[in-house]
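Students often ask what a 'structure token' actually looks like in practice. Rather than answer in the abstract, let us consider DNA2/NAM7 helicase helicase domain-containing protein, a protein of 286 residues. Its sequence is given first.
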Amino acid sequence: MQVKNIPSTFTSLKEYMQSFTLPLIDETRADLASALEGMKHAPATQATSLKRLCSNQHIFSIAVKTADPNSPQRDQVYVPKDADMLMLTDGKPRHISELGRNGKPLLLGSVLKTDGEDGTVVRLSRRPDEGPLFAVFLINMTTYNRILNALDVQAASCRNTIIIEKVLNPKFGPKNNMLSSQTYLYSLDGDLAGLQKFELNDSQLEAVHDCVSAVQLDSTSVRLIWGPPGTGKTKTISALLWSMLVKKHRTLTCAPTNTAVVEVASRVLGLLENSSGGGSGGTSAL
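Now compare that with the structural description of the same chain:
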């Protein structure tokens, strides 16, 4: 599979969505390969029963041996979860070289559900062999599936794509680029004078003022703050959120992980405490 570089610009929503599909598949493949390499340390358990549920598909109900709750190694016993990718083998392998010794392809499975009338239901890549089987956990597909669903062009066309379309087709002009360096430097004398305490560089300072000023316009707009790792994007976002609080704007902040949300919130709290002289004003503001 040849994965092309994702372009910097796109001609349509369809091209934008499809540009990320193959890289996502390749990333999933790489994570699966990494899981196979490290399967020695993966949770595993013995399959106690395997019952076919569909005559024309390899869909089975599987029951597995549960862990002893008092065992110190109970965390190493695999408990299937929805959207898990697992591997069934005749014994827990210690190295990837042990796989495929019988000349047959790997027996992979995808957990369809775990709480139905049929118990844990899996779709297998082929018909399983007779004899004892072990289920070895590889990866969970929940995040990959969500991203893939988000990249579905037909589904996306039914959603509100205004933000995406504005990013794909930016229109630079007087209405979208109203701030000059003199404007944002002058506005430091107003409500945002406290930004000087945060030691922002010129680029970060301009980004904050540009975003704050855009909020005050009647038209909707999109601002993209980008840069390599370590260039102060989180610091800039935190200063921007502080500025929104000072301007009494309510702001919805989203991040891809809970850790990222906590990081941004902690930074904003730190800025609030710094601007209030170390008091509790920052906590009460949030």
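One point worth highlighting: Residues 83 and 111 are 5 Å apart (CA to CA). Ask yourself how you might have guessed this from the sequence alone, and why that guess would often be unreliable.
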